[in-house]
Specification:
Blueprint: E1 16-20, H1 25-37, E2 41-48, H2 56-64, E3 72-76, H3 78-91, H4 108-122, E4 126-128, H5 137-148, E5 153-155, H6 166-175, E6 191-194, E7 199-202, E8 232-239, E9 242-246, E10 249-250, H7 253-266, E11 271-277, E12 283-289, H8 291-307, H9 310-329, H10 335-347, E13 353-360, E14 363-370, H11 378-381, H12 394-413
Amino acid sequence: MAATAGSPGTASGIKKVVLAYSGGLDTSIILKWLQEVYGCEVITFTADLGQGEELEPARAKALMLGIKPDNIFIEDLREEFVRDYVFPMFRANALYEGVYLLGTSIARPLIAKKQIEIARKMGADAVCHGATGKGNDQVRFELGYYALEPGIKIIAPWREWSFKGRDELLEFARAHQIPVAKDKEGEAPFSVDANLLHSSSEGKVLEDPDTKPPEIVYQRTISPMSAPDNVTTIRIGFKKGDAVSLDGKALSPATLLKALNDLGRDNGIGRIDLVENRFVGMKSRGVYETPGGTILLAAHRAIESLTLDRGAAHLKDDLMPRYAELIYNGFWFSPEREMLQAAIDKSQEHVEGEVTLDLYKGNVIVTGRKSEKSLYSPTLVTFEDDKGAYDQKDAQGFIKLNALRLRTLGKRNRG
């Protein structure tokens, strides 16, 4: 078929490209398309971010499609992903538009970083991703590429090729003996992206924002209505704003998040159905599941409530929407994100202790928190005798000073 019409071919000057390769249908088609259209050597990079799939089949498929063994890279990035990307983001309590825990957004800068590292190692002059021209991921990948390697060439097939739809993609796959899973023969009901932090489902049946998602959409959680009738009680320990233990047992970042995911899944926690504003300008509807992240956010805010000064806490809340928007829009490597991160990390120096939570039918309920760095004073807040720790008469002057401008305005407005 004429899928290569108007393509750059060898005139592009690209000799070697690093492809972000999942092993799925779309990136397998991209792999073959790169070989045919650009006539260049293809290097595949597959990141294990905890998406829950066996990745060795990606190696086998790449070999079948003619990739040299030395040009196939599969890396386990789960610990780096959680330690260096997820946890710094959670120190900020980041939520995009007040709802989205940024599960897809935060994975893209790490993938971009690794692609650039492999390109340098292998002498590649280009990188390639499989993001469409309508979404946010193309922006996130490419801003990362350019930040780390300003002169890199980027191939974005969805903005270049002449395929008109999935039928033509499937025809191309059959013509080149690319395996097509039976459930891909027709139009898939939705598209899924997953990693250790979350899974997201979009498109097809979900494109009508007034249509209830079928239960088959959910990848990571059982329904809250089907969750057990008994309460699950857990304790999460923190140090410098990061979760470090579960029920008193020290765990690595990825191991801890995986354990929280399992607890969240079994208790129907972490489902959201949202309409968000994409960076490229359109609104989109998605069903996202972040079981462990939902628990972690509640726990982190609880330990901050005990250990973080009011001014610092309120400033963090003011900064958070800007920080979250930077991550959502793909500016992880920007100087402004790094400046905000420095301020956020400074605020976390004394955020440590333990939080107790009850998990029950989709709910995360904080029931206790304790810390040696606590700013909470029982002596000050008690309704009983505080032994002179606080003179309530002082409040009168405090209130009058704060009311001064209001009283002045009131006198003027009353004439």
